[in-house]
Amino acid sequence: MTVLDRDPSTGGAWQHRWEALRLGDAHRVHDLPGMDELGITFETAPRDRPARDVVAEYYRRFEDHFRIQVRRPVEVASVRRQRDGRLLVDSEDLAAPLTAKAVVAAVGTWGAPRQPEVPGTDLFRGVQITTAAYRSAADFAGLRVAVVGGGTSAIGFVRELADAGAAPLWFTRKPVRFLEADATLGEDLGRESVRLQDEAARAGQELPSIVSTTGIPLTPRIRKLRDRGLLERRPMFVRLVTDGVVEQDGHTTVVDAIIWAMGFRADLAPFAALGVDARDGVEVDRGCAVRVPGLFLAGYGPQASTVSANRGARRIARDVGAYLTDGQWPPPQPRRVGASESITRA
Fold first, then answer.
1. CA torsion sign, 256 to 261 to 265 to 268?
2. How far is CA 72 from CA 4, 94, 290, in A?
3. What is the CATH number of the domain that holds 92?
4. Least confident span in 2-16, 135-149, 180-194
5. CA dihedral in degrees (114, 116, 122, 128; nearest 10)?
6. In terms of pLDDT, which residue wins out, 199 or 344?
7. Taking the model in full, what pTM does it have?
8. Over the range 223-245, which residues count as b (16 or more CB within 10 Å of their CB) and which as e?
9. What average pLDDT does this structure show over 242-266?
10. What Å distances lie between residue 210 and 169, 195, 229, 265, CA to CA?
11. Does any domain span residue 168?
C-alpha cells in the first residue's frame, strides 16, 4: 500500500486555514479511531490556539504513534486506465508512475472552491478571493467588503472583518435559516443532510451544499453578531461593475473587495481522464465510483463530515480488500447474519 499526500505536512486542508480560525468557530472535528490510545481528543482540544496548528499536531501524533508511512508532498497530476485495466497514477513528484488495481481518492474539497457565476467578474477592479485564499481580516482594514455565501465560513468572515475595521456587506443567494442551538435538532438535521448527500451521490447528481440541508445553528457567537446588526443579509447582486456590485433593485453599491465564500466541490481534477467530474456529478455508492472499477471516493457526499468519514473509511477499507480478492465491482455488501442463523451456526 502507498499513501500519497500533496501537502507538506499533516493536517490536510486544515493546515491552510487562516490564523484566526479556532476549533470553536468551525464545524465539529471528530476523533480518529485510536486517538484515545494517545490520550488526546478534539473534545478538549485547545480553543485559544489556531485550529490549523492543533489539528496538524494531533494528526502528526496519530501518524507517528501508528507508524503510518506517508509520502509527501506528492501532487498527483492524473489517474488513467491502462490497457491491462489497472490504474496509472502519475506525478512529477514521483520517480516513475505508480500502477494499482485500486485507488482510494481521499482528496477532500479545499483545492476546488466554487467559482462565481456572476456577470462582470472580469470587470471588477477590486480584490476578489475565495475562502481558500483568505488569510487575515487585517488585509481588508478600512475597506468595504462584499462577503458572498450562506455558510459558517462566510459568517465568520463577517465577524472578523468588522472587528478588524472593515465594513462587511453580506450577500446570499437564498435567505439563511437560523436554528436555535439544540443538540437533538442538530443530530436530526445532520442525519437528514447525510441522507440527501447520499441520495445525490447514488443518482450521480451534483452534491447539495451542507448548509442548504441543515441551516445555521444560532450559537451564542452568531447571536451576538446578529444583535450587532452585522447579519442583515442582502439578496445576491446581479452583476459586477468596475467599482462595485449592482443589486437587484438596480442600485450600484461600491465595494473594494469581494470574498467568495460559496463552499467547495470535491477536488477530482486528477481523475478527469476517467470521466469523473464533480461539476457534473459522480455516481457513487458506498464510496465506490460505480462506473469506474477500482476507484473509491473516500469523503465524498455522505462521508464528507469527519464522523461519517470514520464510518466510510472502515467500509472502504473492507471493500478494497474484497475487490482485490475477487475483482467484483462494485464490491458486494456483506450479508447480514440474523440472530437465528447465528445461533444455528454456533
1. positive
2. 6, 10, 29
3. 3.50.50.60
4. 180-194
5. -70
6. 199
7. 0.83
8. eebeeeebbeeeeebeebbeebb
9. 96
10. 22, 11, 25, 11
11. yes
